[in-house]
């Protein structure tokens, strides 16, 4: 522009062509999407896997027990304590511990034994939900669905 002796208006018209504006808009939209996804991401991930070895078993006092493996992924840079809960059937409870410590950026596999009192559910498959939430921040929580099997 200087070599050709263009004035300020001519240089702006050359720089603000439609192609430059469209590419700038696309770049801005992608940047905002990346920043938004980083801002809104949940720093906790949970996978619930049923224990395939023992589908269901009867334990003390006639309670029915199912065993699950919870894979808890701490995506933060500090150690976290997570509280485990289960719901979906009357009297359902965790027989194993309800708190777990996970180091920064670690994936911890936790065995969760879930029990229900005798006679609260018919034989078959029943939907339940696990809830894992951070003890330090109640807003950080994940709910995962699974099934509870009651033998005949």
Largest sheet: 5 strands, antiparallel
Approximate strand percentage: 35-45%
Question: What share of residues is helical?
Answer: 10-25%
Structural class, by secondary structure, is: alpha+beta
What is the CATH class designation of the largest domain? Mainly Beta
N-to-C series of helices and strands: HHEEEEEEEEE
Q: Calculate the terminal CA-CA distance, rounded to whole Å.
A: 85 Å
Radius of gyration: 27 Å
Low-pLDDT ranges:
none
- Tally of extended strands? 9
Q: Helical element count? A: 2
Shape: elongated
CATH fold naming of the largest domain: Immunoglobulin-like
Within CATH, the superfamily of the largest domain carries the name Immunoglobulins
Tell me what the CATH architecture of the largest domain is: Sandwich
Q: Mean pLDDT score, rounded? A: 92
Number of domains: 2
Structure description:
This protein is of the alpha+beta class. It folds into two domains: 8-40; 44-150, Immunoglobulins (Immunoglobulin-like, Sandwich). Helices cover 20% and strands 43% of the residues. It is built from two helices and nine strands; from the N terminus they run ααβββββββββ. It has helices at 8-15, 18-40; strands spanning 44-50, 57-58, 64-74, 80-87, 93-94, 99-102, 107-116, 124-134, 141-150. β8 (124-134) and β9 (141-150) form a beta hairpin. The longest helix is centred in the first third of the chain and has 23 residues, at 18-40. The termini are far apart. 14% of the residues are buried.
């Amino acid at each position: 522009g200087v070599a050709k002796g263009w004035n300020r208006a001519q240089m702006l018209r050359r720089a603000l062509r439609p192609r430059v504006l469209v590419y700038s808009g696309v770049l801005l939209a992608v940047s905002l999407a990346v920043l938004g996804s980083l801002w809104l991401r949940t720093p906790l991930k949970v996978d619930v896997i049923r224990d395939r070895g023992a589908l269901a078993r009867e334990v003390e006092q006639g309670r029915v027990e199912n065993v699950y493996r919870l894979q808890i992924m701490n995506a933060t840079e500090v150690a976290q304590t997570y509280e485990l809960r289960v719901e979906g059937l009357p009297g359902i409870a965790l027989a194993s511990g309800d708190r777990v410590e996970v180091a920064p950026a670690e994936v911890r596999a936790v065995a969760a034994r879930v029990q229900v009192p005798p006679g609260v559910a018919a034989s078959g498959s029943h939907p339940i939900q696990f809830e894992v939430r951070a003890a330090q921040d109640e807003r950080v929580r994940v709910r995962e669905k699974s099934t509870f099997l009651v033998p005949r």
